[in-house]
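Quick one: examine the sequence and fold tokens given here and explain what the tokens say about the fold. Here goes:
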Amino acid sequence: MPRDLAELSLNAHLIGVPGSRQRLSTPALVLDLDILEANIQTMLDWTKAHNLRLRPHAKTHKSVAIAKLLVEAGAVGACCATLGEAEALGRAGVPGVLITSPVVQQAKVDRLVALNAVATDLAVVADDPANVAMLAAATAGEGAKPLTVFVDIDVGSKRTGVPSAQQATALALEIAAAPGLRFGGIQGYAGYLQHIVDFDLRKSGAEQVAQQMRQVEAALKAAGVAPPLMTGGGTGTHALEADADALGELQAGSFTVMDVDYDRVTLRADGSRPFKDALFIATSVVSAQHEGFVTTDGGLKSFATDGFPPTIARGAPAGSTYGWSGDEHGRVSLPEGAAPLSIGAMLECVTPHCDPTVNLHDCYHVCRGDTLVDIWPVDARGKR
């Protein structure tokens, strides 16, 4: 059963009230719907123009509503980093879910098979013969629904995936031979490339990854198991994938909302910025007793802290900077000579790293302009 809006947020009573964006009880995760929709359309226009499918990664937003918006706009499904995320989306009717990490524990394999029975076009990756054997055994029963399995290729991240074409071929043959499994193709995601700031350096890396993927493809074809699809890539390499000429499907997800880290990255060769920041943390001043800074109610429990600090999008003088002052508090350092901020003043900050920041919040406060128009749960928050 969907959670009641009042349970999700103290701001439910503000839905539809003009000016309500500035009246939110803080800290609050704010999603600008106009910008989100524009980002989605921009990416889909690009992928369609370059003959690429788009299966955006839901580890960014963890939201059924956003996943469905993407599918309605033309995406073929959603990628999920964990089985729990896939369950949240697949059981809610999001089609084409691909779990991009291996599912290996027996209890999780049982959950995977149960999800496959009710989900539309579910798929998973594997990089180990023992895992393929587990999946084959779990789907071998009479009347069991076939499960689509991709071979995960390590294209340099050194996290998951097989490092050689020979290993990939052996796995693909095992998948193809299992009656309850279907060989979906190969996945090659170069996460380490996505945040390289310099476009040319990132391009060189993407070309190397594409070469490796084509080598694996050639080996598979020679063995009689041509991959139906090659999937991978991300927001940082999206503009390079067509020229690299390896992938048929793009897994980018952060483009939907963006963040401080991606705002540093030159995404297009001409330096243009095709995607805008759509995700913010609204926070309010709770103390203004010191010269040069004020204290807010947005601390370590409101922002991901694994990268750059938030940037202040609105609500503070130009040149102000944001930092943390404990679990529940933030600090806005003001430039010399700036007018002081009063208690209750609200700021909106661009999230430092969107994925883990979203995972700290129960819901999105969805706004158009200055009005709160809806509240959406973070459905896959904490799902493993």
